[in-house]
Amino acid sequence: MAATSVHKFAQTITCHAWSPEQTMVALCPNNNEVHIYRLSEDKWEKVHVLQKHDQVVSGIDWSARSNRIVTASHDRNSYVWNLEGSEWVPTLVILRLNRAALCVQWSPRENKFAVGSGAKIVCICYYEQENNWWVSKLIRKRHDSSVTSVSWHPNNILLASTSTDGKCRVFSTFIKGVDTKDSVTGTSDSKFGELIIQLDLSFSWSFGVKWSPSGNTLAYVGHNSMIYFVDDVGPSPLAQSVAFRDLPLHDLLFVSERMVIGVGFDCIPMVFAADDRGIWSFIRYLGERKAISSGSKYGSQISEAFGKFYGQSKHGASNDAADTSKTHENCINCIVPLRDRGTLIRRFSTSGLDGKIVLWNLVNEQDLAEYYLK
């Protein structure tokens, strides 16, 4: 399997997000603007430029239900953009930050969104109908350094965050009047900002964090070339760590309960999967022509992967060894799902410092992962 299509939009892409119908993509070309492109007759046409921020836009999320875009920027501001007629109209969000906003994500029900910042604060933002504006409640004095990534649990209440203090934390974001008591049993009893668990698995900066589709597993990555998996998040979590000799990951995505795609400084996605015992391991680089041997289960997988790494460059790897235009040529900093019907994610896109957005198709990867881990 290889990348299905590649498009170069800019010299560098900071972040990107897809419209609900996935016919348009919003991206930041490493400046204070957000460019929106529409696919028309197999070509991408720039149809909107969102101009309101004063500094680099560090986060974009496009809501699937309400068709709203939220942006966050190093200028310490966030905007919610609504399409009115043919124009995107911004609404300022009151964040009350004194440092850069670094990441943003809508909650599953889209009645809230979370913003991580360099001020060691997470802002949980919600809409006040009576005042017609977005306000925020702040989770303070929990992080010792910048908040690099946030991820919502499927229950719309729990929020995971990672930080350059090396820790991953899970908080309750229950807001009276915004969330309902019947959201999920137990979580609505906790107060806003209550620390559910703090994970001290990494001794280096922590970056991307994601929940599995069911919310039973939490995964995050460290700058020490490790990825961490935590089951039964709560008083007695079950944690695993997977080390690899390649460059660190920056972000990750669950495509199923047992399979994770990690992206980062190696410029090519990496596949991790759990076997029937729930043990996670590295499987392969996405788009490799030759699959990892299944002879000696774990040893041969890792050794052959290392052989590929040291024997040939992974940059530009694809099904066709001569075609190097189909993958990234610089760090991948963003991975976004393209959702089809059903619970499994079959397609996703990646963007990076090379200015490309690459679309990937997982038609056979699910079967491959389970085959190697039998």
UniProtKB/TrEMBL annotation:
> Taxonomically, which superkingdom?
Eukaryota
Under which name does UniProt file this protein? Uncharacterized protein
Please name the source species: Bauhinia variegata (Purple orchid tree)
